[in-house]
Amino acid sequence: MESGSSGLKKRGNWHHQLDCVLSLIGYCVGLGNLWRFPFKCYKNGGGAFLIPYFTCLLICGVPLYYMELSLGQFTSRGPVGAFEMAPLFKGIGFGMVIICWLCCIYYNVVVAWILYYLYNSFSSELPWASCTSSWNTKNCSNFKYECNKNGNEMVGYECLSNASDVDRANAPKVKWVAASEEFWKNHVLNQTSGIAEFDGFQWHLVYCLGVAWILVYFCMLKGIKSSGKVVYVTATLPYVLLIILLVQTLQLEGAMVGVEYYLTPQWNKLLEPTVWSDAAQQIFYSLGLAFGCLMTMASYNKFKNNIARDAVLVCTVNCFTSVLGGFVIFSVIGFMSVETGQPMSEVASEGAGLAFVVYPEAVVRLPGAPMWSVIFFLMLLSLGLDSQFSMFETVTTALFDKFPRARSYKPAVVAVMCLFMFVIALPMVTRSGIYWLTIFDTYSAGFSLMFLCLFEIACVVYTYGVDRFSGDIEMMIDSRPGLAVKLCWMFITPVSMTAIFIFNMYNYAPASFEGQPFPLWADLMGWGLTLLSILMVPIMAVTEFATTEGDSLIQKIRNGLSPSPKWGPAEPVDRIDYERKLNEDADLDSQTKPEMGEEIRETGENSKQVPTSSYV
Questions:
Q1: Which of 181, 202, 203, 191 is nearest to 133 (CA)?
Q2: Could you give the CA distance from residue 427 to residue 435 in angstroms, rounded to a whole number?
Q3: Which end of the chain is more exposed for a tag (fewer CB within 10 A), N or C?
Q4: pLDDT above 50: residue 548
């Protein structure tokens, strides 16, 4: 980054602090809050899951969130420049940027799916409302639903008004498939049987992916100046729509059954390690830790902004949204269970199955179905774009921090980046695209996130030092982190993260899709994605070590683990205060630490012996 006020001016700041807070909320509150948390909650003990969930929030989530915001705001740099505190650890920042880049590629494919559903929602009849389309099969469950609705009985593939026992005995057993599932699998994805069978593009998804990247381009064209305005809509609109959906879904028949299923505590689950691991992972991914996005957004703050307040506020809003979203989702699942006669365990699902199959199937049974479909997918679009904006901004900030002159060509650079990511994502909009996306989703930000997070703690806490880092925070907000936060940074959080990392490695299973394992080459490719970010740590450490000055191996290591001249506030006024503080601390140390070996002895009737050294 260019030093001096002119360099900072070119980099820019948030126009108003609310821009940053809304951007943080928009980044953290994403699709996972709606389609992952509710499923994790019911699966891991219902209401009892909230105990490990909020415990992990307090001992891991909030402390790490506070740490990353502090790093970004203090240095006014993204993840690549934030680790100048110990240059041998620079690879952490590069690894974070690579994770964001990989996630940007596949996340916009999900946005493309949402756009296609939103487009199809603007119709008098939703295309997944019936079984009369070309992609439907004779197993479409709407045939059975309409038959039973009219008081008849579906026997095999026939709808009979007076079915006999003989008819039932001779009828074939049919595995019914929801019309929304056939629309999803046979039309939207038109998926093949395996990852190696591309079998052409799904052109409607190619067009939607192009629209998604055009949206990203125009919203990110001027960086935070444009995205900071967009988030006033994209970060707040989901809450308006979520409340509208909540009011509607709670009135559905069976909604309370679903809510009860969602929240009924199973206390015995608290003794299972998997429950605590799932809670920690949900907090970790939901808050977006170790992606570098938090540092990036905080780097555009004013130096004196109260990041402690922001950290607590955003973490609270994020968790509240997850719990609130659970009421909406399980009201729908309860309604579907009553409507279809299926048990809750068969209706409940997570991820794409929930967003693109279960909820669309429920919508068609509501009065004014297209309107509710528009509201739901507009909400998903807002959630998806917010997270995408933050990840994309992290990648561009890293690039412009590393090459400041590139800011003069920002429109062209952003256009090239969008086009490049669009091209890389094209295999994900072929007929085998869902398999490629699953590989990216599983391996891009799994073990690598935990790995980078542990090294981040090692760098900030054990190398740079908690007291020194607390002093830097004090410069910004005029108060040091409390004892509880320091204890989490030094002991509780790293121990918890290490335990989770080991547990996940022990229970690792290769990626699969709908129970179908991937071929070996696909798994190896996935691990290649994981290693792209992990290997940046040793590669950058070796690179920095080779260029670090020092007469001996030990001296080069010491210099590599000491703050570089680039470390510190970027604003000249704040940097002067920082350097003055360093000089005052050095003067104080020289006054309170006599030279090594000096001894003062007083003899006499009340003599005392006071040995002193540079360690006193």
A1: 181
A2: 10
A3: C
A4: yes
* Interaxial angle between packed helices 91-121 and 520-534, expressed in degrees from 0 to 180 and rounded to the nearest 10: 130
Q: Say which residues have a Cβ less than 8 Å from residue 141's Cβ, sequence separation at least 6.
A: 176, 177, 178, 179, 340
What confidence tens digit (pLDDT) does each residue in 446-483 have? 899 999 999 999 999 999 999 999 999 999 999 999 99
Distance CA 184, CA 304 (A): 49
* Top mean-pLDDT range of 109-113, 151-155, 228-232: 109-113
Residues recorded for the chain: 616
**Encoding tokens for residue 407?**
């800011």
Residue 582 to residues 472, 575, 578, 585, Cα–Cα distance (Å): 10, 10, 6, 5
Amino acid present at 517: P
Beta bridge pairs of residue 611:
599
Q: Output the CA torsion sign for 244, 247, 250, 251.
A: negative
pLDDT digits (tens, 9 = 90+) for 291-323: 999 999 999 999 999 999 999 999 999 999 999
209: Cβ contacts below 8 Å, ≥ 6 apart: 108, 109, 112, 422, 425, 426, 429
Amino acid 295 reads: M
Structural contact between residues 395 and 96, judged by C-beta atoms closer than 8 angstroms:
no
Q: Residue 517, SS3?
A: strand
- Residue 85 structure tokens: 């505190």
Identify residue 150 by its one-letter amino acid code: N
Q: Kindly state the tokens that stand for 235.
A: 């970060």
Q: Please give the backbone phi and psi of residue 561, each rounded to the nearest 5 degrees, phi first.
A: -100, 5
Which residues face 158 on adjacent strands? 155
Position 530 pLDDT exceeds 90? yes
3-state secondary structure of 20: helix
Query: Residue 496 and residue 464: Cα distance in Å, rounded?
Result: 21
Strand partners, 601: 609
Q: At what angle do helices 237-249 and 369-402 cross, to 10 degrees?
A: 150
CB 238 within 8 A of CB 29: yes
* % of the chain with per-residue pLDDT over 70: 91
Instruction: Tell me the HSE value of 51 on the side-chain side, using a 13 A CA sphere.
Output: 15
CB 493 within 8 A of CB 60: yes
**pLDDT given for residue 166 in this prediction:** 67
Q: Report whether 448 contacts 535 (CB < 8 A).
A: no
Distance set, CA 573 to CA 15, 576, 581 (Å): 19, 5, 13
Tokens 């990626």, located at residue: 511
Show the CA angle centred on residue 433, arms to residues 351 and 198, nearest 5°. 155
The span from the CA of 256 to the CA of 565, in Å, is 61
This prediction has a pTM of: 0.89
Written as six digits, the tokens of 356 are 């693109």
Distance, in Å, from the CA atom of 593 to the CA atom of 613, rounded to the nearest integer, reads 7
CA distances in angstroms from 51 to 45, 282, 598, 614, listed in the order given:
10, 13, 56, 48
Cα separation of 413 and 472, whole Å? 34
Higher pLDDT, 213 or 406: 213
Residue 114: pLDDT over 60: yes
Alpha-carbon span 234 to 387, nearest angstrom: 10
